[in-house]
Design a protein that fits this description.
alpha+beta; Alpha-Beta Plaits; 3-stranded antiparallel sheet; two-stranded antiparallel ribbon; 4 helices
Length: 131
């Protein structure tokens, strides 16, 4: 029993030595997310506008109901989203909106630093999503 206790303490002390830390010192070191990580949303642009055709599939499939889309038509008769908003405070980052999009106009980036001071800053409109 004493032998097992000493083995456990040796493992603990080995992790306390410099170079064996499992904690990342965040502002100085940043982890690279895995390729499957789902971070901040982004609308995919084309030459003159966004790829989105305002089909309403993303707000329909969203379980958190955090996506708002209002459509309009341009002079060529093409539909586009006049209003496209995502409320990140309600979003659960499930990725269903990306999977449901028939024209692949929405993607999730690897950006994970989303802290803000005001609740309004978490509502991403079309202009912010195109950046």
């Amino acid at each position: 029993m004493f032998k097992e206790f000493i083995q456990g303490l040796s493992i603990t002390f080995k992790h306390l030595l410099p170079g064996h830390s499992t904690t990342v010192q965040y502002p100085d070191e940043r982890l690279t997310p895995s390729p499957r990580f789902r971070g901040l949303h982004r609308l995919v642009p084309t030459q003159d506008r966004e790829k989105c055709v305002a089909c309403y599939l993303c707000p329909t499939v969203c379980p958190a109901k955090c996506i708002t889309v209002e459509s309009a038509e341009n002079e060529k008769g093409e539909k586009y989203p006049q209003v496209y908003e995502i409320d990140l405070l309600r979003c659960i980052f499930c990725g269903y909106c990306v999977e449901a999009c028939p024209v692949e106009a929405l993607e999730m980036t690897a950006e994970y630093e989303l802290a803000n001071f005001h609740r309004e800053d978490f509502k991403f409109n079309k202009k912010r999503l195109l950046k």
